[in-house]
Specification:
globular, GlcNAc_PI_deacetylase-related, LmbE family N-acetylglucosaminyl deacetylase, seven-stranded mixed β-sheet, Rossmann fold, alpha/beta, 36% helix
Length: 236
């Protein structure tokens, strides 16, 4: 069993809302237990969408982040590459820049924060920003000598409902974190605060989708609700 009260979590989110979609329940559970929670966003900018306006602005997205940060009581958050130059274009950045940001140059880098738990997106996402964030995290958290370079003991890849849209079979999560009704309620409430990103069902970011995935993962662990993660490193 993981004692969440003793943890310092670093969530790597390609865009604002990914941290909530993948880890909203865990963030609430850990914070309630006494953990620190920090969120490193990679990018944010104006986004074309299917709303009446046809896009959500970076200003709207920043306002939403602040509301969600207060909701979850994050201990810190940062955006590494803000602006339309990078948003949905992270695959154009040199991999070295992304890796270096995660590993050492960001205020919330692994080297600066020394988290005990790091959560990154899963590589199976169809979104190019998610894919390169996952690969950069994989490199930044690579094995080496712990005496000369900090190693977070627990490294996890979180899932989003759309990750299953993949031409290759995606393995099931091997770590299930049990959630309470309060945890899943906090997660869905946070997604409502991301008003530009929330959609009616059927949609991968609908409230029913989030709850349904939590019910499925809970059933797999013999409990009512859970979030699923893929373990990249677990050092006891």
């Amino acid at each position: 069993m993981i004692d969440w009260s003793r943890q310092r979590l670093l969530i790597l989110a390609p865009h604002p809302d990914d941290e909530t979609l993948g880890c909203g329940g865990l963030m609430h559970k850990a914070k309630a237990a006494g953990a620190e929670v920090h969120v490193q966003f990679l990018t944010v900018g104006d986004t074309a969408d299917n709303s009446a306006a046809g896009f959500s602005s970076a200003h709207e997205r920043y306002t939403e982040i602040k509301r969600v940060a207060d909701h979850f009581r994050w201990d810190g958050w940062d955006i590494a590459f803000p602006g339309d130059e990078y948003h949905l274009k992270l695959d154009r950045l040199p991999r070295f820049d992304l890796v270096n940001t995660i590993e050492r140059t960001s205020p919330l880098s692994v080297g600066a924060l020394r988290p005990t738990v790091v959560c990154a997106p899963h590589r199976s996402s169809y979104n190019q920003d998610h894919q390169v964030t996952a690969e950069a995290a994989h490199t930044a958290l690579r094995p080496s000598d712990r005496r000369s370079r900090y190693h977070p003991p627990l490294v996890l890849a979180y899932e989003e409902a759309a990750d299953q849209w993949h031409y290759e079979a995606v393995t099931s999560p091997d770590l299930l974190v049990e959630l309470s009704e309060h945890d899943i309620g906090a997660k869905t409430s946070a997604m409502r605060l991301y008003g530009t990103q929330t959609h009616e069902h059927p949609h991968t970011r609908s409230e029913l989708t989030l709850r349904s995935l939590a019910v499925l993962r809970g059933m797999q662990g013999g409990t009512a609700l859970a979030e699923g993660f893929h373990t990249m490193r677990s050092l006891a």
